[in-house]
Amino acid sequence: MATQQNHLTPDRAPDPTPTRSATGIDGLDIILGGGITRDRLYLVEGTPGTGKTTFGLQFLLEGLKQGESGLYITLSETATELRAVAESHGWSLDGLSLYELIDEEDLNPDFQQSVLHPSEIELGETIKSVIARVDELKPARIIFDSLSEMRLLAQNPLRYRRQILALKHFFSTRKCTVLMLDDRTAEAGDLQLHSIAHGVISLEQLAQDFGTERRRLRVIKMRGISFTGGFHDFVLKTGGMHVFPRLVAAEHFTEFEDKMTSTGVTALDDLLGGGLSRGTNTLLSGPSGVGKTTTALRCALAALQRGERAAYYLFDEGLGTLLSRARTLGMDVEPYIADGSLKLHQINPAEMSPGEFATTVRNGVENENRSFAVIDSLNAYLQAMPGEKFLLLQMHEMLSYLSQQGVTTLLVLGQHGLVGEIRSDVDLSYLSDTILMFRFFEARGDIATAVSVVKSRTSNHPRSIHEFRLSPNHGLQVGEALQDFEGIMSGLPTYRGRTPIMATNAD
């Protein structure tokens, strides 16, 4: 699925003073509250392939937009390679200065000498070249790529540190904002650069057992700036780096009217104690094929008919299958898709990180004014990312955020088994405001379906168990309470009366 460029409300107000430099990466500027402090030296570290070069080029191109000149100093890549990277993102480097510190003369054996140690000559010449080029071009933004070559030239930790400090002092006197890139070739635990730099941003790339690799970013240090800590997912795609800020629900709250809304089925509203309450989430739990998705779609259609805007995040089922089934049951949602009231997201969870999904949901709420959301289903989302240890905490943050935004949310959770013992991959009951439980049971030689509300934090609901049925002519039906049955939720009931069963009176 293509990554969307999202423009979200910052988690904190931007710095009101004009001392910040935007990085050109929207998500990162949100994390930093507006950008990095001007005229300082920063470290961007990460192993090869994490996106450091893309990061640096975006930073310089953003400077051009702001009328700031930029210089890319490279010891590890050629200017041709940098232009190729830019072209892959659809960028032009016209207006930027590219300076290669290693040229063909450095490779000529006639220019080598053996009286002095090579590092004493080469490091000094490298620093002089950098100083001369900066004084000549007077850039406002500089990328220094990479420190690994500087470390090798120095060959001595003390000399290396002194040269970096000297460069830092020089850049500060020239009013330059500098990003130094490092590929972490230093010995483990070497934090010299961390102590020297004004700020440190770390990029990581994690291999998954299945699906695309995961990339994440962490601001380790940023002097004088209040930033959002922790790991933030990001992706590299055509157009550059896209960062998805970690969602902190406590920083978002919107005033909304607390009221009950209809599901579109009167009997289901009665079972829920009046309907669905705004700003709450409802978990639809039951085995495959029992009617969870259809119920969620019926509730979404009722919201659309009231004039609300809805988002449906589809993980399991194909889009065509969902729309076809909806039409068969008399729930045609395609006109609402056409006018933009309903947005269906067909999501491949193996290609999407939790942070990107949370940002997609947040974008729908803040930029598209969607007040009704369906996540169908949690099983595919959870199982596609078995290595994400804190996925439930992220889900908690997202549900808290949706609640504070006044969004009515439905969560679909499939369970293992059809009758008898039913199990779930994960227990989300503690996160749910309302739980609507579905079960298959056998009655008079037919497979029937039962539904019951087992939990509601917002209404005084009946605890009775009712028959549930889907039909082409009548759509979604909820029958009378099954008072003459015992053991329905186990799937093996005992019939002790004369309660009429809709399943035995099929259309």
Summarize the structure.
With 507 residues, the chain is an alpha/beta fold.
What can you tell me about this protein's structure?
The protein is α/β, with parallel strands linked by helices and 507 residues long. It folds into two domains: 227 residues, 3-Layer(aba) Sandwich (Rossmann fold); 242 residues, P-loop containing nucleotide triphosphate hydrolases (Rossmann fold, 3-Layer(aba) Sandwich), CATH 3.40.50. 29% of the residues lie in helices and 26% in strands. The chain has a nine-stranded mixed β-sheet with strand order 5-4-6-7-3-8-9-10-11, with helices on both faces. Helix 4 packs antiparallel against helix 5, helix 5 crosses helix 6 and helix 12 runs parallel beside helix 14. It is elongated and about 95 Å long. The two termini are 41 Å apart. The N terminus is likely disordered.
CATH class of the largest domain: Alpha Beta
Could you name the ranges where pLDDT drops below 50 across 5 or more consecutive residues?
Answer: 1-5, 106-121
According to DSSP, the number of beta strands is 24
Question: What is the CATH homologous superfamily assignment of the largest domain?
Answer: P-loop containing nucleotide triphosphate hydrolases
- Look at the helices and sheets and give the structural class: alpha/beta
Number of distinct helices: 14
CATH architecture of the largest domain: 3-Layer(aba) Sandwich
Average pLDDT figure: 86
What profile does the largest beta sheet have?
A: 9 strands, mixed
Gyration radius, rounded: 29 Å
- Total domains: 2
| Major sheet strand order | 5-4-6-7-3-8-9-10-11
Quaternary state reads: single chain
State the distance separating the first and last CA atoms: 41 Å
* Relative strand content: 25-35%
Shape: elongated
Here the CATH topology of the largest domain equals Rossmann fold
Q: Helix content range of the residues, please? A: 25-40%
